[in-house]
Amino acid sequence: MKTIDQQLRHAQTSSKLINGQMQLHHFISYFLLFGCGLASGITLSFYLKDISFNFQLNQFSIQSQISPSKPSSSFSLISPPPSQLLPLGEFLNQTRNRTGLKEFLRVPNVSHDMKEEELLWRASMVPHVGEFPFKRVPKVAFLFLTRGPLPLAPLWELFFKGHKGLYSIYVHSNPSFNETVPSNSVFYGRRIPSKRSMTCPAQLGRGRYNPRMKPTIQLDQWRKGSQWFEMDRKLAIEVVSDRKFFPIFRRFCKGSCYGDEHYLPTFVSIKFWRRNSNRTVTWVDWSKGGPHPNRFGRMEITREFLERLRRNGNKGCEYNGRRIHICFLFARKFMPNALDRLMRFAPHVMQF
Description:
Elements lengths: L1 H65 L21 H8 L5 H5 L10 H8 L16 E7 L6 H8 L6 E7 L59 H8 L5 H7 L6 H13 L10 E3 L18 H8 L6 E3 L2 E3 L5 E3 L6 H12 L2
Parallel strand pairs: 1-2, 3-6
Antiparallel strand pairs: 4-5
Pfam family, one: Branch
Keywords: Glycoprotein, Glycosyltransferase, Membrane, Transferase, Transmembrane, Transmembrane helix
Membrane topology: Single-pass type II membrane protein
């Protein structure tokens, strides 16, 4: 009897185990079926979206090819045919501003980042057509060479007053000078970059000549002139284009050799002596000798003094074979304390 009961319990246990295994098998089957359905749905969804997107792209592309001249609000990711691409030159012309004569003639800022060689090359570019295709107002350019501030700047301000548009101003100062001027000054923003340094000459005349300048520059060709000089545009172009004499001065005019007193007189006397007036625009008193001329202080400045120096005393002078009464425009050197009397008398004598 006991054996029969054990067999029945064993049969029931086996039946439960089989039923549990069948339920687990069904659960796994249902799970796999659900997973396959989910994967199939996702795949089908992406496939249908891709078909719709490609269809729209093809439709937009066909529309753009049928009517390329009409603007379309549709967005196309397909590049236009090669025949519709603009040449590079035409494309650049359409995408940048055109430069007219007005922009070409606009005066650039005097500040620049060019090296000396680059600046000279740029300055040598000039038109070769003599006639101007526009109304041109001639100007006089003033270049001031100075170590620091201009001691007679207020007098020059008075001189330039009322003549705007008839002059250009450039200030070439020592590289170490870093002061500014008021924004209402004619010298404001007119300082040009410089690597040049200034030294006081100790020797005189031909004593500054360097024999190593031979054979390009001989001793009898060596000249000394005033630090005030005047030249026309044609001669100025020759100066900035010089590649024969200027390199010699750059190499051998050192120390006591003062380039702005010797280079221009020497260069002009060698190459353009027929155009050299052999005179200066400023009266200088060398009667005391030495490397520097006589200086004039405050009490020496009178109206009669200024008139006398402009007329070269009572001697007068000749220019281009004609007798003239104005021999000098100004004089040097004036002390800073002479400024107030210069501003009082100079406008009457010089008529400005």
